[in-house]
Amino acid sequence: MARADGYERCVREAATQAEIDACAPKDEPIEVRVRAKPPARSASDVEADAQVLAAAPHGSGADVLRVLPGVFVSDRGLPGRAPHLSLRGFDGTSGQDVEIFAGNIPMNQVSHIRAPGYADMRLIMPEVVRSIRIASGPHDPRQGDFGVAGSLHMDLGLEAPGFWLKGGVGSFGTRRLLIAFAPEHDEMMDTFAAFETDAMDGPGGARGGERSSFVGQLGGGTNQVQFRATVAIGSARFDFPGYLPQGPVERGAYPYAAQRPLGRDRTSQALVGSDVLWSLGEGTMGIGGFAGKTKTTFHQNLTGYALDQLAGEPIVESDDSEMVNDASTFGLTVLYRHGVEITSKRDSIEMGAYARVDSVDQTDTRLFEDGTKNAALVDATIDATNVAAYADLSLYPIRRVVVRGGARLDSLSYSVQDRTSNAGLERTAQGFVVSSKAMADIAVSGGVHLVASYGEGFRSPQARDLDEGERVPFTKVRSVEAGVRLKEGKTFQGSAVGFGSWLGNDRVFDAASRQNIEAPPSVRAGAQVVMSARSGPFGAHLSGTYTHARFTGSDARFAEGDPVPYAPAFVLRDDVFASGVVGRLSGKEVTVRVGAGVEGMAGRSLPGGRDGKDAVSLDAVAAVGWRGMELALNGTNLLGLPYYDAQYVYASSFVKDSAPSLPSPHVLVAAPIAWMLTLQIHLRGKEREPEPAY
């Protein structure tokens, strides 16, 4: 960002491009601040900027992730819980295999009752996500727990300073209000505050609920110091309709019916994170901290009256249950980066340390049909401590070649008090894991780079599964990737890669326990192509990913060679957009903005050798703007193609005296064509006039 106050004021007040061109900067040095993302650790590292994110409508911060290559987001019709997230053949359920950050706040929750790594990004408004960066694979020493398939980083900030007011109404009783502002101050360029509230009835009237959230950030700096302090607080409560047997739906049953009585999902989050970077001579020092208080509640009955019969016992009560996870998190990060001279004067080294403490209270209670307590299936308190250190070395041994590599050591310790067994005595376990990383980047010519990467990562276990004195059994992954990157300024960027990952043991969703349970080791191999092009007012961002995922071991449910269930083999995404001035009204420009996002998913395998249903969806937006106002019409699933937002295989019986079905697909049908009309008002601050002299 060029900082010359007079020049900036002239540009801000200009009405035409000719007036902007006439704004000559003063005859004085212009301070230039460069915002750069970290160096790519693999050929497939990709960043989606604000233009790509705004190409198609998005309902939440979780929905925004769909623009990233290889990412497929499902369970979108259940807005009261974290979405189902798949990446490159890893069925991450709710975040177990993907490390996720909003600003500098880690979103993954340790040993969550539903899935280790559970991450709910829905409290983040799409308007405050300035860009998203994906690092596929565990190739960076900074990556820690849950960075198995890769890491996602949301950079937060408003599109422009000033005051923002946005409201909208739409299909299925949807209504939304956003209020936000950001100061007009160069040294506070990352500062903003935003409030959102929304509500909906949902298709069929069985997916209704409300959400409210606040996200604020104090950020900016000077040449010597950069700082950020981010706060995100929100709550949501939505009805849970359950999953319908697929057979009746395909025979014409109403697709938006719900199992009765309705379940409910509730979540509350209070998250804070901060970091400061100092330029100390030729080096950089950084320190950050984060803390969080989260609570999630799932009241659900997925199987009806099947659990007693599947256990060989007479039916006593329904399978209705309530799961609660109440967690507190505290953490600290420190790093120091400095140039060294090993192979050249451009070499550098970074060392860092990380510490995180989590305290988790979790219960799983089976209920009588009147909603009172039947039996405690889980009643535990978990204390988890993760202390880590890493080193990362960058070398430039010869011209056009950079080699980066390092290692990370994580020590994890657990204390589990299980009040459902052994009189509530504590079980303790501890262990450490070392992860190695390496990559080579060769600049060929004309913006073409050949990149090869290797990395190891890990996922922490479900702490309740640990035995007393056990050495922590980490799930480790080894990953390789090689490919080519091409960049022609902002006009064209692209990459083509091949990749492979070997996972020590998987986790797969199980409806009987309503959580992810252990599965055999697995392997994934595939390829990915990403292209981004800009020309004048037009732009496009395309990606295609293929992954072949198979188990390499066997257990009671899966055999060696079986496909890994639920994660799609093909994920395709295309975001296109155009914007420009179409005329003038009362001396002010009239602008038009249009965009669309097309997503396709295919090759999703289900347990039992079944094939899941493929899906194609189209979302689009058309908007017209004038004098700081914009009227937009958003449309989702515009092709009107019915598809399943979720598919799981399990046995169920929703009639008390009937035998449970054999394991079969149960589905959540995606919402049909929907519209939303929004009005946005943006007011810029006005420079204060000088006081008159008397």
Automatic annotation (TrEMBL):
Occurrences of domain TonB-dependent receptor-like beta-barrel (ranges): 257-576
Principal subcellular localisation of the protein: membrane
Gene3D superfamilies: TonB-dependent receptor, beta-barrel domain (2.40.170.20), TonB-dependent receptor, plug domain (2.170.130.10)
Domain TonB-dependent receptor plug, first and last residues per copy: 48-150
Protein keywords: Cell outer membrane, Membrane, Receptor, Signal, TonB box, Transmembrane, Transmembrane beta strand, Transport
Domain of life: Bacteria
InterPro entries to which the protein is assigned, alphabetical: Beta-barrel_TonB, Beta-barrel_TonB_sf, Plug_dom, Plug_dom_sf, TonB-dep_rcpt-like
Compartments where located: Cell outer membrane
Topology of the protein relative to the lipid bilayer: Multi-pass membrane protein
Keyword presence, DNA-binding: no
Family: Belongs to the TonB-dependent receptor family.
PANTHER family (alphabetical): HEMOGLOBIN AND HEMOGLOBIN-HAPTOGLOBIN-BINDING PROTEIN 1-RELATED (PTHR30069:SF29), TONB-DEPENDENT OUTER MEMBRANE RECEPTOR (PTHR30069)
Protein name as annotated: TonB-dependent receptor
Origin organism lineage: Bacteria, Pseudomonadati, Myxococcota, Polyangia, Polyangiales
